[in-house]
Amino acid sequence: MHKKNIFDYDTKELGAELENAGFQKFRAKQIFHWLYVRYIDDFYAMDNLPLALKEYLSANYTTANTTIHTKESSNDGTVKYLFKTKDNLTYEAVFLKMKEDRFTLCLSSQIGCKVGCSFCLTAKNGFSRNLTAGEMVYQVFAIKKDQNLSNNKAINIVYMGMGEPLDNLNNLTKCIAILSDLDGLSISVRRQTVSTSGIAPKIKKLGTLNLGIQLAISLHAVSNELRNELMPINKAYNIQAIIDEIAHFPIDKRKRVMFEYLVIDGLNDGLESAKKLVALLNKIKAKVNLIYFNPHEGSIYRRPSKEKVEAFREFLLKKGLLCTIRESKGLDISAACGQLRERNLNPS
């Protein structure tokens, strides 16, 4: 018998199924407490559930559709996780220790990716399938449990791992809802950021849902010519098409749209690019996050110098454009997106 993944459910959905099976629907909240507050994933260890319910859950649901296959730990506290699915596919997530005892989880939304960015290792092995909502949620459950994080420890979620989140919009929105469920992980939507390569129609669709999440755009270039080279999707949805949709996207008045800018030596790290970026974002409430290119074997691109990246940031700040430099994490492990998966798929 095929068992359903318990991580695919929010409390309302699980409560309805329990009620249809003859149990009180409030039991769903108890199950969520065990899973997401206590990190207990053995139904028989959920002490306040009646035996008949434990037997029903064990017969019909599973907590083991996905497992941690391997992980790598960095000296800076970063941990890269490789998850394995029931159909023997793998995907990654990253646990990041930030400043002042804050934590960020970088989640995958797909196994592989269709977008095919030239700088990204994920695209090398093609696209396998979308992750289910439960497989996305499991990343958070498993990492919080493995890191022994208390249930009330505030964490930030970024859908910025393997895959294009907006290509898996239905499962993405369900994952956001499950993570923000007050009876479970209770991660506010304001702490969840969706990063997209810029699929303009789906940015528009996401905006109509008005979920309250934060939005990040993987921009990486200020000319369509360079962006076509780095991100072939730009040929379908160019820079201006993305900017047009951003102008109408519902953002909390206290927040800004994040523009991620991967800085690559000799390609987009000069002040001429910085000037064009200021002009491009002139009418948008924006924040730019500069990211050092993280080299990986076989890449044709190089990491830029610290001096150039800092000069880029200073120019933007002087022009009134909020800008930060993302601190490089996990350089001593397989930190580049897709790198740990690639090493396991194609060991040398």
Termini, distance in Å?
39 Å
Order of helices and strands: EHHHEEEEEEEHEHEHEHHEHEHEH
Please give the radius of gyration in angstroms: 21 Å
The total count of helices amounts to 11
Q: Strand tally, please?
A: 14
Secondary structural class = alpha/beta
Assembly form of the protein: single chain
Molecular shape:
elongated
**What percent strand?**
15-25%
Sheet with the most strands, sense and barrel status? 10 strands, mixed
The share of residues in helices is: 25-40%
Question: How are the strands of the biggest sheet laid out side by side?
Answer: 3-4-5-6-9-10-11-12-13-14
* Arithmetic mean pLDDT: 93
Poorly predicted segments = none
Question: What does this entry look like structurally?
Answer:
It is built from 11 helices and 14 strands. With 348 residues, the chain is α/β, with parallel strands linked by helices. The strands form 3 sheets. Strands 3-4-5-6-9-10-11-12-13-14 form a 10-stranded mixed beta sheet, covered by helices on one side. Strands 1-2 form a two-stranded parallel ribbon. It has a two-stranded antiparallel sheet with strand order 7-8. A hairpin with a 5-residue loop joins strand 5 (90-97) and strand 6. Helix 9 (271-280) packs parallel to helix 10. The radius of gyration is 21 Å and the shape is elongated. The two termini are 39 Å apart. The mean pLDDT is 93.
Quick description:
By secondary structure, the protein is α/β, with parallel strands linked by helices. The chain is about 30% helix and about 20% strand.
Layout of SSEs?
Elements: E1 4-5, H1 11-20, H2 27-37, H3 51-60, E2 61-62, E3 66-73, E4 79-85, E5 90-97, E6 103-107, E7 110-112, E8 127-130, H4 133-146, E9 155-159, H5 169-180, E10 192-196, H6 200-209, E11 214-218, H7 224-230, H8 239-246, E12 257-263, H9 271-280, E13 286-292, H10 306-318, E14 322-325, H11 339-345
Parallel strand pairs: 1-2, 6-9, 9-10, 10-11, 11-12, 12-13, 13-14
Antiparallel strand pairs: 3-4, 4-5, 5-6, 7-8
